[in-house]
# Entry
Amino acid sequence: MIEVSNIEKSFDGTPVLKGISCVFETGKCNLLLGGSGTGKSVLLQCIVGLMKPDIGSITFDGTIYTNSKVDIRQEIRRKIGMLFQGSALFDSMTVAQNVEFPLQMLTPEMTPAERRDRVEFCLKRVGLEKAGDKMPAEISGGMKKRVGIARAIAPQCTYLFCDEPNSGLDPATSIKIDELIREITHEYGITTVIVTHDMNSVIEIGEHIIFLHQGKKLWDGTKDEILNADVPELKEFIFSSSLVRAAKKVDDESEGGLAAITENDTYGSGI
Amino acid sequence: MLKTFGTFVLFMRGMVTRTERFSVLWNRTIDEAILIGVDSVVIVSIVSAFIGAVTCVQIAYNLTNPLIPQSTIGYMVREMTILELAPTITSIVLAGKVGSSIAGGLGTMRITEQVSALEVMGINSTSYLVLPRIIAALLMFPLLVILAMLLSILGGYLAGTLTGVMTSQDYIEGIRMDFIPYNIVFALIKAVVFAFLVSGISSFKGYYTTGGALEVGAASTGAVTNSIIAILIADFALAALLL
Ligand SMILES: Nc1ncnc2c1ncn2[C@@H]1O[C@H](COP(=O)(O)OP(=O)(O)O)[C@@H](O)[C@H]1O
Ligand SMILES: [Mg+2]
# Structure
């Protein structure tokens, strides 16, 4: 469980995060939902330690991360896996070397054979067992995301962070990536935090959703509660999605609701 | 300006605190040394041979007094290339080649979040990315400067003898005249200082790139111009201090 309490962050006097408190639950896909420029990425970077919040604290399973000693921070960082928006693969290395890299750096006690096994396992897990020798420039965007996921889980992370895992992907690929993230989260019982502005993802994998608007948390709950949420900003955000408008219509007519739409219209367009 | 310098000092300090394992850094340094050194041999050879040749021909053209022996040409080629042309011109050439590639490489890694990816893994990205580049430059610049010295003296020899402005005995006598070993030491000190300036400034420019592809280009250009200016200022300062 990751607890974020009262995080504030401003750039050159412009506040971006205005006191955010929330909890990310273990073994679940936690979604950080919000429009562009609401500070989702900034919050994620504060949580993983790429950025220092001005005020507030972040606790990983009871261990305080912000302002702790370097050793403690380092220990927590080893448990963090992150999938970046543009995948951020090391472009001078092959796919397999990318996945092996964190093992080489973080677990020097592993033998080369153990590392190779682990790389093979992770690539297989994300469905890329044949692409190990390719360079990042030679593979598609969806494959890059898969490699990014394999690299993140290679050192057996406890926390997985994904910044817009669907950006730049077609709807079918998006859903596959979403499902992969959900499966991995449940399989290994990790705490997953996914930044998104995509209502498709909410419907697909949202187990615990936190809605951000202009640097504030306005709502949090489950995907079953989200359609009935009584927050005007959230309503406006949700119903700007045509898919959800359609879902709501089905809901009103037949009580089938979101379940009906996820079954019938998996490839529907997003926002 | 002062703030930039302060950031640069902190950048250098961050590079040597909490470094990665020695074996990791060593392998990275070898990779970078190949990029910096081996890949620059051709351009440095061409430039230095021609500089030696041109220096020889121009000195011969200016030395019309029959009282001055022809061997003076060889002597002057040696002095000019060892003291000034080999270390400085080579470093300026490398500022263009190595500086732009360091800044472009690091800038691209920064804007594509590869630097962040390293940091999230708990890796000190400056120590992993920058330290090997600087050490590789410190090792390779002096070697390339030695190569440049030899080739520019050879270039002078070929130009002098092939164009018939002097005999090979005169040239060889000239380059063996009043040899001061300290000049070589001085040139190598210059090479090491220039290596630090080029690799440090270019890494700094690249590492702190923000924005997109356009900014990576700007960082590369900035790295080259700033490195060249720094080389020339340091060249003057070292001459004033150490000669
Ligand atoms: N490093 C930075 N320096 C200054 N401003 C920033 C920085 N990072 C983000 N911002 C600003 O913070 C705001 C939120 O950005 P971000 O978190 O990237 O939004 P999003 O919710 O789309 O991910 C934006 O207005 C952006 O300009
Ligand atoms: Mg973002």
Summary: Residues 22-242 of chain B form one domain.
